[in-house]
Design a protein that fits this description.
- The structure holds three protein chains of three kinds.
- Chain A is mainly α.
- Chain A is built from 15 helices and no strands.
- In chain A, helix 3 runs antiparallel to helix 4.
- The N terminus and C terminus of chain A are likely disordered.
- Chain B is mostly helical.
- Chain B has a domain of 200 residues.
- A two-stranded antiparallel ribbon of chain B has the order 1-4. Chain B has a two-stranded antiparallel ribbon with strand order 2-3.
- In chain B, strand 2 and strand 3 form a beta hairpin.
- In chain B, helix 5 crosses helix 6 and helix 9 runs parallel beside helix 11.
- In chain C, 39% of the residues lie in helices and 24% in strands.
- Chain C is an alpha/beta fold.
- The mean pLDDT of chain C is 89.
- In chain C, strand 5 and strand 6 form a beta hairpin.
- Classes of the chains: A mainly alpha, B mainly alpha, C alpha/beta.
């Protein structure tokens, strides 16, 4: 066995790419936890941090569906609504029996998330067989149904909305921690055999089936996980805003989450985190300064973001330009250069894989010696190249 | 009885909008999310012309022209560059266009509702029920438009070309059909129908807001899906069915708050039982 | 076990009134390299679609290694050991080359969802094994250097190769190749022939391929089957089939 047959061993590199996401969240979590515990965080900052946290959770979870699975869900706010009402209601009940706010919060988040996940299962099971546009409309319909149903239940406060308890700075610490967990789950899921199957479905469903990928199962898994986190985001919202306002969970909010996903980049978790933070921040600052009809400006900007970014990324005619100014590819080529230097510096021996069986390349002389012209001498009646007639 | 007539009337409007959806979906293979908002623009066009000239007829003409041009513009600027891109991208762009139109309307006209009166037509007694004339006009004109459209597609050369493009775009192109031209024409027709829909809508509900189009738009799409997307009679049946159900549900106090839920619930049930809608055809992806 | 790897009995499908394929009777011996040829529109790809569960046959049955697979889903059929490539390349274009292969290997990992998300030891173990295997496979196809490239950025010939590698990754018993040499230049075709032969010998594989390139077909196939208008025209050794007057007529027309 010659040395040429040895592969450079895949080194266990610490992949900065996958840690950067945690860093984004931790950059908010750590300093504000410290200042929060020492007791000097303004109420408005605390509200803003919570909003950023649940936006992050929503954007990352929607990205699982839109960016990784490649299906458009327009009912993400609907799952959030389920979580908000059920989780908020449950927390109000828990308060009467449990003193610890932390436990109440965590239990209610679990219950809200699980209920939303159940709804995800319920709606996903029959509808995920539908294709693209149909699924979008069904999820949209679902969001509207959920909203009208909760709005009309007296036990959830009816049109007045559901009043909930306040949690103060504990809420944003927990909320940001949940955002961290969301990133953990999303990222680990996508960097596994399951995640690869999910992305395969996005890229080519027929081929995925032919490769034995259980398409329905994976669609359902993504749908349910996304619904679960949307539900938790809803519970966090419910504890940040009282009374819970059913109007908030309208189709508009589903679109707002979609804008975060598109702006951050489909299938890009860091992008979702940044976009969620920036948009939420701007949103909160804008609404305090702009009022009335100028709120339309916000949606004008959202609309332009959706149109321009999607067009830039997808228009067939822009492919050349796109490749020239592709940020990711620039970074990749830079990384490649660095890696090359690295690898040539340290050629590691001792791969544990046996390579004897497999030649590196099929040697050139075998190819040249292969007889590739059919032998027609046995067949005098046959015209010279019968196969030509078959070619297009 | 009155509820039924009202339902038929609303159903006619839904059917008109649904026709626009179904034609565009059938031929361009995309869900034009902004279709509902073209109705809104039509309504504002009527409002503005009425304010300037005070007469309904030129207002309707202006609305038809504005909507048609807008349909052509959105197709040219937003959708055509994405032809051949993934359906997800096209759908998101269409949602973007929808929001763009809404927010521009809001910036120009404000979010308050504006009153538009296309005139009072009074009502007639028929079988001991008083029916407003505007309802009858709406219903009658909707029927005429639908029949005309069906004839156009069945009997004319252009209609045939449309059918061909919807069956197989590549093959149609090979047969010398100008596919881009047909798609543009489809958008033009769909948008012109939307202008009529906005006229009828204003006859029923004489006020206009920037979000006027979004709910009827989504419901009409629902109607198109229920009837079977791509099918013209399907759009009519779906539209009328949905309109009647909506008015019936609204007339029963216990169900009234859940009207939207019922309509969308119907959509989900129909898609589960018959994923292609009532009159839809099955499509196979070529491998 | 059966003498034949694949056996079809009167397999057929009709779309509406059109019989796209009927009475297809294939008998493919283990470890053999078979070619399926025929003029355009003869129903070759339809046969592949029947064998891989994309279409459900309206008549007949088929068996893989003695096990009946008629009417099973595409996923189930792949699990039982039939893998395929596509005439119009269907790679997972936004995924890296190695990820394409790893998707195919998904069935060889017992790692469940929970273990993956929480990165339990089995995740690391299977992931490492799969990656090693995937690279081994990529090296056969001379794609290892490009394993991090996005599949859509590969040159055309390499995309075709990657499709074969991906199909092999599912660890099949029978490999169906739909026009593997389409669009390749003669040198690439020659290289591909060698790869296919290599795969057959070293992976203990039975191969059925559709091909228009007669030099490839006659160069490597043990036996040929000819389809025309959805029916079997001839079956036999390469020389036999290519000298069959019926076959020549089907290709060149009646004159």
């Amino acid at each position: 066995m010659n040395t040429q047959n040895k592969l450079p061993v895949e080194k266990k590199k610490i992949k900065a790419k996958y840690f950067i996401n945690y860093v984004f969240v931790l950059a908010l979590l750590i300093p504000f936890t410290v200042t929060g515990l020492s007791g000097s965080v303004k109420g408005s900052t605390s509200l803003l941090l919570t909003q950023i946290a649940y936006s992050m959770i929503l954007a990352v979870s929607l990205n699982l569906v839109v960016g990784f699975l490649g299906e458009l869900s327009l009912g993400h706010a609907g799952f959030m609504c389920v979580g908000a009402y059920i989780g908020g209601f449950f927390a109000n009940y828990l308060h009467t029996i449990i003193d610890s706010k932390l436990i109440v919060l965590i239990l209610s988040m679990l219950v809200g998330g699980i209920m939303a996940a159940l709804f995800g299962l319920l709606i996903g099971l029959p509808t995920l067989r539908l294709k693209g546009d149909y699924l979008a409309i069904v999820t949209l319909a679902f969001g509207e149904i959920v909203r009208t149903v909760f709005m009309n239940q007296e036990i959830f406060g009816g049109a007045m909305g559901l009043s909930t308890q306040k949690y103060g700075k504990l809420l944003y610490i927990i909320a940001l921690t949940v955002a961290l967990v969301t990133v953990f789950v999303a990222q680990n899921l996508m960097r596994s055999k399951h995640g690869r199957a999910i992305q395969a479905i996005r890229d080519n469903e027929i081929a995925a089936r032919a490769m034995g990928v259980n398409v329905t199962y994976y669609k359902l898994v993504v749908f349910v996980i996304a619904a679960f986190f949307a539900g938790i985001a809803g519970v966090i919202y419910a504890h940040n805003t009282t009374p819970v306002d059913y109007g908030f969970f309208s189709f508009n909010y589903s679109i707002e989450i979609l804008v975060m996903v598109v702006l951050g980049g489909m299938g890009n978790i860091s992008g979702s985190l940044i976009a969620a933070t920036v948009l939420t921040f701007i949103n909160v600052k804008l609404t305090t300064h702009l009022s009335g009809d100028f709120a339309a400006l916000k949606f004008l900007i959202y609309a332009l973001i959706l149109i321009l970014i999607v067009m830039w990324n997808n228009a067939p005619k822009l492919a050349v330009l796109r490749n020239r100014f592709n940020l990711r590819r620039l970074v990749d080529s830079m990384m490649k250069k660095i890696r090359k230097k690295h690898e040539s510096a340290a050629q590691e021996p001792g791969s544990n894989v046996e390579w004897d069986r497999i030649p590196t390349k099929i040697p050139m002389d075998t190819i040249l010696s292969t007889d590739i012209t059919p032998d027609h001498s046995l067949d005098p009646e046959k015209p010279e190249k019968p196969e030509k007639g078959d070619k297009k | 009885m009155n509820t039924l007539i009202n339902g038929l009337c609303l159903g006619g409007i839904y059917a008109l909008i649904a026709l626009g959806y179904t034609m565009v979906y059938g031929i361009a293979k995309m869900l034009n999310f902004a279709h509902g908002d073209i109705i809104m623009v039509g309504a504002y066009a009527i409002f503005s012309t009425m304010a300037l000239m005070g007469h309904a007829v030129p207002a309707i003409v202006v609305a038809v022209v504005v909507c048609t041009l807008l349909g052509l513009l959105t197709e040219r600027v937003a959708y055509r560059p994405l032809r051949g891109a993934s359906p997800l991208a096209v759908l998101i762009t269409a949602i973007g266009v929808s929001y763009l139109l809404q927010s521009i309307a809001q910036l120009i006209y404000g979010s308050k509702s504006r009153a538009v009166s296309l005139g009072n037509f009074g009502s007639v007694e028929l079988f001991n029920v008083s029916i407003s004339i505007s309802s009858l006009i709406t219903l009658g004109l909707c029927l005429i438009i639908m029949v005309a459209l069906t004839l156009f597609i069945k009997k004319t050369k252009v209609g045939c070309a449309m059918l061909a493009v919807s069956e197989d775009r590549a093959a149609a192109q090979l047969m010398g059909i100008n596919v881009n031209g047909i798609i543009t024409l489809t958008f033009a027709i769909g948008s012109a129908l939307a202008a009529f829909a906005s006229t009828f809508y204003l006859m029923q509900i004489p006020s206009v807001t920037p979000t006027l189009g979004s709910m009827p738009g989504i419901k009409a799409f629902t109607a198109a899906v229920i009837g079977g997307i791509g099918s013209i009679p399907g759009a009519m049946i779906g539209g009328i069915l949905l309109g009647v159900i909506e008015k019936l549900a609204l007339s029963i106090p216990a169900l009234a708050p859940y009207t939207t839920a019922i309509e969308f619930g119907l959509l989900i049930i129909i898609l589960l039982v018959k994923p292609t809608g009532l009159l839809g055809k099955k499509r196979r992806e070529k491998v | 076990m059966s003498e034949y790897m694949l056996e079809t009995r009167n397999l057929g499908i009709s779309f509406g009134g059109l019989k796209a394929a009927q009475d297809v009777n294939l008998k493919i011996k283990k470890n053999a390299l078979y070619g399926l040829i025929g003029p355009n529109g003869a129903g070759k790809t339809t046969v592949f679609n029947l064998l891989t569960g994309v279409y459900r046959p309206t008549t007949g049955t088929f068996f893989l290694d003695g096990v009946e697979l008629t009417g099973k889903s595409a996923i189930e059929i792949n699990k039982r050991g039939i893998a395929r490539t596509f005439q119009n390349i269907r790679l997972f274009s936004n995924m890296s080359v190695i990820d394409n292969v790893l998707v195919g290997m998904g069935n060889q990992s017992k790692c469940n969802l929970f273990e993956s998300i929480f990165r339990l030891p089995r995740y690391w173990k299977t992931e490492k094994e799969l990656r090693a295997k995937a690279r081994e496979l990529l090296r056969v196809f001379d794609l290892d250097d490009e394993r991090r490239t996005m599949a859509s950025n590969l040159p055309y010939g390499k995309q075709r190769k990657l499709e074969i590698a991906r199909a092999l990754a599912t660890n099949p018993k029978l490999l169906l190749l739909d026009e593997p040499a389409a669009g390749m230049n003669p040198q690439e075709t020659a290289e591909l022939m060698e790869t296919i032969r290599f795969v057959r010998d070293n992976f203990d594989m039975t191969v059925l391929l559709i091909e228009h390139d007669m030099s490839l077909v006659s160069g490597i196939c043990d036996e040929l089957m000819v389809l025309n208008f959805g029916t079997m025209l001839a079956q036999g050794s390469v020389d036999e089939v290519l000298s069959n007057p019926e076959v020549i007529k089907a290709y060149l027309g009646d004159d």
